[in-house]
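Recall that a protein's primary structure is simply its ordered list of amino acids. Everything else, from secondary elements to tertiary packing, is in principle encoded there. The following example makes that idea concrete.
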Amino acid sequence: MLTDIAINAAIRAAKTASKPVKHYDERGLYLLVKPNGSALWRFKFKFEGLEKLIGFGRYPEVGLKRARDKREDARELVADSVNPSAVRKAAKLARADSVEALALEWLEKRKKKVLASTLRRDRRRLEKYIFPTLGKRPIRAVEPPDLLAALRRIEALKIQDTAHRTLSACGRIWRYAISTGRATRDITYDLKGALEATVVTSFAPITEPRRVGELLRALDGYSGQPSVRCALKIAPLTFVRPGELRHAEWKEFDLDNANPIWRISAKKMKSKRDHLIPLATQTAAILRELQAHTGNGRYLFPSLRSGARPMSENTVNAALRRLGYDGDEQVGHGFRSIASTLLNELGWDGDAIEIQLAHKDGTVRAIYNRARKLPERQRMMQAWADHLDVLRADATRERGGSAS
């Protein structure tokens, strides 16, 4: 019989061997030790007159006692005329057909199709609300009431939007399971109308020119981290999506060009197309100021905890709250509404505005305009920065201060 001392001695000795060596315990159990030092449990048995072999894992992850327990379980199955190998195969198939396994497959398939932030949010919802109760169950065995019970727990937290988004993700997982032959129907169809309605609200915008000027003046007064202060200043000038702003990398910027530009790759964009942001002189000046603080790292706006990650998705909104703007009044995404509204009121070309907002449009005309509208967008972005300066100065005069 084997002992842990004998096993460790065999592993040390194996390094001088030229081929794997079997070290037997009893009743068909042995340890196969390879010259590279790996040690694998094997169990040899006879079933229906034929010799069979099954593995029990690697030592020391599977210790001697655990290996012997596995052997006894397998011997009991053989005594009952059941093939242990067939039982293991069935269990493996069941795991592959589980809700969690299919969800993870579905997430992996989406990697090249959606933004990384979207993927993280979907995975986080599933891990928090679905996997704990349904994750290990075969997807065919989950019935509508089972899924509804999980969704009701989300509703109890008063986050109806999350419940609806989780149900939507589950629908896509079930349809993926159908397409791969591991489910026969999408049970989420049975839950239509079962959840409480969610109140849909637009991202909070401030679009009245006087109030925009007051907002810009407030942003200038932010006294927190320099990188956050610069993010607050750049957001209205570039009006990119919050995720695009916080993931900005220095390698994407050409500040030395006669026409400075920010190039965002397609993999970061919701539209899945490369996006160009012409930079006004004011924007370029803020970026050069920021270089003194974060220019040696990867991100313009790194996390305070680690320069290897961008700042949190809540940082800009938290800064706005600190300045006195609550979520019903202004959020980071609201800078896009400000730009869209005021640029249209100022009479700029609608196509140029839409292209600069990176709104998804797959028409030939849109693709054509993306190439032809860059000079106009350069003029527009400079005029937009100048207009914001005017609004800021007007707000400062109204307050009796001096424009900076």
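The chain has three domains: 4-93, 99-191, 209-398. The chain is about 50% helix and 10% strand.
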